[in-house]
Write a structure and sequence with these properties.
alpha/beta, 14 helices, three-stranded antiparallel beta sheet
């Protein structure tokens, strides 16, 4: 029996997560026995380091973890995150500025709920992570896209950002290293954005979850360190999912001015209360521990980056800039559109249609650029095994060039 009662306008205006949709379809095909090579989900294929898992195993049998704990997070974890911020980002924050969240997504969602009123605008450099504009909408705000394509390294310029500013501009999102492009924005750009935000009284939401995944000697610039004056209007978003191969543990955090963090904890108190205590213990072991395992994974990603970028650029009609961070290759596939492609010689008008056919016919899963505000592109996560990258790229090339064979 269907329910004919209407749902809220708010939820009807929100699009489903395209990255999860691709991953869900790929997994459903695999469950049916189809051999799918999945480049969709942004999760490391490594196991969580054993020393972190061992701490969690001990926590499981400790009765103190069976009770409610402070909504904002275990005090020792909040302190460890503050220490980690000084170590990695280069500036001091207090434990009371930290709120531990159920994954990085909850931190982003809470940040939007905290700062936006109906009609407020959020400038989102584009291509963007697929959930940013939807979370802005859920808070009653309006996403304002500022596009920067492959020809400028997917890095926005301050002139375009300023052109997008209105008297309703409330915040800007900074994501470097970037999902979906893998771009690492220059120190100059990060400083310009921070100084611009201070000048115009705009909140900065800095998503730093890929901070340790950079290549070719490029380093992450932390806006809170580059522009100290911005810290009073800065909310940092982070988590253990990418750095420590812990996406399923669901531990993230936000760092904000003390009064904002207090309000975030109040909001979370009516949403989820504390994050799972076992996962928090594991996260404590991760952020307080060394980065040895992280470096091992980064080196593996670096190797895979070379393999996938080379393979993508070897496909006629595809161009892929070399990413400097994260674990995504963001390929320009406009050369495959509006011309015969694939063994059936079909023509595709959009990268979304192209990605759907690639999955259905070649059994290769990638996320179309429409999910990131960038039609004509496709995102390939190379956080997968080397042999899967090689096989997936072989299938893509064979499928894309079949018509001209």
């Amino acid at each position: 029996m269907s329910n004919s009662l209407p749902l809220s306008e708010r939820i009807n205006h929100v699009a489903p997560s395209a990255t999860l949709a691709v991953d869900t379809k790929a997994k459903a095909m695999k469950a049916q026995g189809v051999d799918v090579v999945g480049f969709g989900a942004g999760e490391p294929n490594f196991a969580t380091p054993q020393e972190i898992v061992a701490v969690a195993a001990e926590a499981v049998v400790d009765p103190k973890n069976y009770k409610y704990t402070p909504t904002a997070g275990l005090p020792e974890l909040r302190a460890a995150i503050a220490d980690k911020t000084l170590r990695d980002s280069g500036y001091e924050v207090k434990p009371e500025q930290v709120v531990v969240t159920n994954g990085g997504k909850q931190g982003v969602y809470e940040a939007m709920q905290l700062i936006l009123n109906d009609g407020d605008e959020v400038i989102i450099p584009t291509p963007y992570w697929t959930s940013y504009p939807e979370m802005v909408k859920l808070a009653g705000g309006k996403p304002v896209e500022v596009f920067a394509g492959a020809e400028v390294g997917f890095e926005p310029n301050i002139e375009d950002i300023e052109k997008a500013r209105t008297d309703k501009t409330k915040a800007i999102i900074v994501t470097s290293p970037n999902n979906p492009t893998g771009a690492v924005w220059s120190e100059k750009t990060i400083k310009q954005i921070g100084e611009w935000a201070v000048e115009h009284g705009v909140w900065v939401l800095s998503d730093e979850i890929y901070e340790h995944l950079t290549y070719d000697g490029v380093k992450t610039t932390y806006i809170g360190a580059a522009v100290p004056e911005v810290r009073g209007q800065l909310i940092v978003l982070n988590g253990v999912a990418k750095t420590y191969a812990m996406p399923g543990w669901r531990v993230g955090w936000l760092i904000a001015p003390p009064e904002v963090a207090k309000e975030a904890a109040k909001l979370q108190g009516h949403m989820t209360s504390n994050v799972n205590n076992i996962a928090q213990c594991a996260a404590l072991a991760a952020v307080a521990g060394p980065l040895d395992a992280v470096e091992m994974m980064r080196e593996a990603f670096d190797k895979r980056r070379g393999i996938i970028v080379s393979a993508l650029n070897d496909i006629e009609g595809v161009h892929c800039p070399t990413p400097k961070g994260a674990f995504y290759a963001f390929a320009d596939v406009r050369g495959l559109l509006n011309r015969p492609v694939g063994p059936n010689g079909l023509e595709f008008e959009t990268s979304s249609d192209l990605a759907a056919a690639l999955l259905d016919e070649a059994h290769v899963a990638a996320v179309p650029g429409e999910a990131f505000g960038a039609p004509g592109y496709m995102r390939f996560s190379y956080a997968v095994a080397d042999d899967q990258i090689v096989e997936g790229m072989r299938r893509f090339k064979e499928w894309a060039e079949a018509t001209r064979a």
